Amino acid sequence: MLPHALDSAAQAQAQARIVATAQDLFLERGIALVSLAEVALALRLPVATIERAFPLGKPALLTAAIDRYLTSFRERLAEHQPHSSSAVEEMLRVRRTLQSLPDEMRGPFLPELAASYPAHYQYLITTRLASIISYMQANLHRGIAEGFYRANLEVAAETERWVNQSTVAVAASPNTQVLAEALAAQTTDFLARVTSPAGALVARRLQEAAPYY
């Protein structure tokens, strides 16, 4: 590997450490109490190192932390498909993931983000919902092919319905806990609406056999 490639790899690793540490601090302390100096102190690095990595300052570091969370969220959604025996089980796993949102966005982080960085907040919410919607489209096609969802389902219409319900839930939810409950309930309603008799039986048996669902 060429020296400049090694330098680039080292820089990428260093930046990833900065972003991961910043994300943890933002969630633990809130946005207002975390400065570039605090991130540098946690990493035992000079502040100048953080400033070179993020010359646009704290807003840029916050964006990177949000992107890191969104990447992790998409990866966790993607993990459900190969580990699920059916589209029905996938959606039960997705519901579980949605119920964990308050644990991920705990403390003052989300209210502060909405109040002080509204563009960042909107980006987080809309991108996360877009990931869920994309996943659901694939899930609908799988469920129809398996015979566990109704054969006459219109994927576009069901997706649009999900988007509309999610938009209302986001607007009406004062905090992440309420939003998580709304999205989980929405997933329950979705399964009740789209499953065939065979799919409903699968859902019932899975939930009876595994409290996880």
Q: What share of residues are in beta strands?
A: under 5%
CATH topology heading:
Tetracycline Repressor, domain 2
Structural class: mainly alpha
Biggest beta sheet summary: none
Order of helices and strands: HHHHHHHHHHH
- CATH homologous superfamily caption: Tetracycline Repressor, domain 2
The whole-number mean of residue pLDDT values reads 87
How many distinct helices? 11
Overall 3D geometry? Answer: elongated
Compute the CA-based radius of gyration: 20 Å
InterPro entries: Homeodomain-like_sf
Protein name: TetR/AcrR family transcriptional regulator
Structure description:
With 213 residues, the protein is mostly helical. It has a single domain (58-209), classed as Tetracycline Repressor, domain 2 (Orthogonal Bundle), CATH 1.10.357.10. 79% of the residues lie in helices and 0% in strands. It contains 11 helices and no strands. The chain has helices at 3-29, 36-43, 47-53, 58-80, 87-99, 101-104, 109-116, 118-146, 155-172, 176-194, 197-209. Helix 1 crosses helix 2 and helix 8 (118-146) runs antiparallel to helix 9. The radius of gyration is 20 Å and the shape is elongated. The termini are far apart. The relative contact order is 0.10. Residues 1-6 have low confidence and may be disordered. InterPro entries: Homeodomain-like_sf. This is TetR/AcrR family transcriptional regulator. It comes from Hymenobacter nivis.
List the helices and strands and how they pair.
Layout: H1 3-29, H2 36-43, H3 47-53, H4 58-80, H5 87-99, H6 101-104, H7 109-116, H8 118-146, H9 155-172, H10 176-194, H11 197-209
